[in-house]
Amino acid sequence: MKLICSKANLLKGVNIVSKAVPSKTTMSILECILIDASASEIKFTANDMELGIETIVEGEILEKGIVAIDAKVFSEIVRKLPDNDVTIDTDSNYQISITCEKANFHISGKSGEDFSYLPYIEKTDFISLSQFTLKEVIRQTIFSIADNDNNKLMTGELFEIHNNEFKVVSLDGHRISIRKIELKDSYPDRKVIVPGKSLQEVSKILSGETDEEVRIFFTGNHIVFEFDNTMVVSRLIEGEYFKINQMLSSDYETKFVINKKELLSCIDRATLLVKEGDKKPIIFRITDEDMEISINSQLGSMKEEIDIQKEGKDILIGFNPKFLIDALRVIDDENITIYMVNPKAPCYIRDDEQKYIYLILPVNFNASAN
Amino acid sequence: MKLICSKANLLKGVNIVSKAVPSKTTMSILECILIDASASEIKFTANDMELGIETIVEGEILEKGIVAIDAKVFSEIVRKLPDNDVTIDTDSNYQISITCEKANFHISGKSGEDFSYLPYIEKTDFISLSQFTLKEVIRQTIFSIADNDNNKLMTGELFEIHNNEFKVVSLDGHRISIRKIELKDSYPDRKVIVPGKSLQEVSKILSGETDEEVRIFFTGNHIVFEFDNTMVVSRLIEGEYFKINQMLSSDYETKFVINKKELLSCIDRATLLVKEGDKKPIIFRITDEDMEISINSQLGSMKEEIDIQKEGKDILIGFNPKFLIDALRVIDDENITIYMVNPKAPCYIRDDEQKYIYLILPVNFNASAN
User: Fold this and answer.
1) What ipTM was reported for this prediction?
2) Residue limits of the DNA polymerase III beta sliding clamp N-terminal domain (chains A, B) (predicted)?
C-alpha cells in the first residue's frame, strides 16, 4: 500500500476514528486504526465492538492495500509531523514507513485480518437534523445518565421519534432530563436506547454547525450517525425504557420565575463550602418577597437572597446542589420557571412549551437546624 | 476587625500569598492567611517556614484587628464572590463574616497568636533588576535543579554577584545551566544558594514587566524579593556550592551551528517513540554535510536529517532527549552553536559572549545497532 495525504487531512481522520479506540483492551487489534485503501477511497476505521467509526480521508492512492496500525503511535506521529504531504508506505510484511519532508518513521503494522469490520447497515429508516441541534440536545441531557452500570438502561438515553417530534430522555434515579426537538419532516414512530458513551463520542466529532446535516439511521440492534465523510455505528441498549410520562405531573403548589444566571452563581458560591463526598443539601426558603438560599457545612455557612416572582404557597425545600447546577448550566433561557409541590415531591424546571423539562428530587434535611 | 476591599484587590492579594501556603502540613496555622489590619494598612501574610510572603491589599479599615483565616476556603470564597466591594467583619471569637451584595458567608477564623511571622530583615545589602529579567533567568535555569532531595545543594540555584554581573547556576548531576545578566550598577560580591521551590513561586508572582523593578536583599540566612506591594522571604540553602568553573572547558573537537527550532521539532518528533521510563538515547551522526538524528525503540524507529554548518571532526554521540529539549526550549536565539569533544565528554550549547551555557552529558549507546 502507498498513499499520500496532507498532514492536516490525516490528523483530522485520526482524531475522528480515535474516539472509537478503547483505552483499555486485551485485544490488541482493537487498539488499531484500519487504513483501507483497497478501493478508490482511503478509509480509516476503528471499532471497540460497541462503537465503530469510519471516515474517508482525502488523499492519493499510489498503490492499493490495507494495513492496521496502532492508533496511539500513529496519532502521535501524525500530530508531530511538519505541515506537509505525508507518504505512508507498507511492505508485504506490514512494515510501515511514514515520511514527511526529511523525517522518516518505521513502525510495525498488522494485516488487518483480525480487524472487526463495522456491521453492514441497511440505510433505509432514518431521520435528519442539523449537527448543531444533535450536539446541543446531547449536551443538554447527557449529564443525567447514571455513572455506573447497576442499571444498564440508565447508562443510555432514550431517543423517541413521533411524527415530527424528536424527544431525548435521560435519568439516573434522582433526576430526569427531557428535551424535545421539532424536526423538519415527519417520520414513523421509533424508540431506541443509545449508550451514553457513544453519544459523548459522537458529540465530540460533530462540527456543531447549524447548516451541516446529520442523518440518523436505525436498525434492529444499531444506530448510525452519518455526517460529513464520517459514519458512526453504535450498538443499542436492549430493553424497555422507563415509563417517563407516569413520573411527570403538571400539578404544583408553588411556582416562581427566577434569573437563571443569578441562581447558578449563587448555588456555585454556596457549594464551595461543601467538600467532595460531603452530602450537604442547599436549602431554598421561598416566600412572597424573595428566596433565601442557605447552606451549612463543617467549613462554615452561607446565606444569600435572590429576587423571585412567585405564585402559590411558601415552601422550605432542600436539594443536592450538583443536580441543580447540572440542569441550570444547559438551559439557555435568561429567566426560568420552577414548579414545586411539597418538600418531598419532585421539583420541575420547564418552559411553557415543555421543550425542556428537568425533574429533580429534593433531599431530606433537618429543618430545625436551618 | 472590619474591612472593605474590592473583590479584585482581595483576589490579587490572596493569589499572591497563597503561593506560600503549604499543600500538606500538620500545623493547621500554616494553612492560614494572616489578615493584619492592626496598623494603617491591610497586610496579608502566609508562611510555610521556608518561604514567606507578605503583600499590602488596598482597602478601607473600619475597625482595626488581626485574624487568621483558612487560605483555601478564603480563596475559594473570594474567587466566587460577585465583582463588588466585600466587607470582612470579625467578632471577638474570631468568627468571620464575609459579605458581598446579598451573599453572606460565615466561617471560623483563628486569633493569629500561633502564626509564624516573617523574620525581621535588615534591608541594607541589595541588588536591583527588572521583574522581566529575574523571571526570565529563573525560567532559563530552573529546569535543571535536581527533582529529589538526595543532595540538598542540587535542589537550589546559585545566585552569584560579582561587580555588575549576576550569574545564576543550576545543576542536577547530568547537566548544568548557567545564565549571566549584566546589572545596571556594581555591587559587592555575593554568593548564595536559593531553594528552587522558592524561585518557582517568586517567578509565578512576578509580573514580568520590563519597567517594573525587583529589589533582592541578602542576609546571612535569607533572601528577600521586594516588588510592587509584595515581599517574599526565603531561607537560603546552607553549604558550599559546586565549583562550576572546574567543570567547564572551552576545548572542542566538533563545533556546529544549527537552527534551534528545527532541532527542537525533530527531537520532539523522535521522542514520541519513547515511552515514559524507557531510556532510549537519541543519536546524532554529525558529518560535514549534515546531521542525521535517529532513535530506536520497541515501538519503531525514526530518522531525520538536518542541515548544519560544521567545523572539526565527524562524531557519533547519544543524548537523553529530555535534557536537550529542556535547554533548547529556553534559548531564544534562532541559530545556536553546539560544541563537542568526544562521545563521552560533555557537550556545550553556548553563545559567543557566554551569556548562556548549557552543559549536557552524553549517554552510552550501542553504536553497532545504529
Assistant:
1) 0.86
2) 1-118
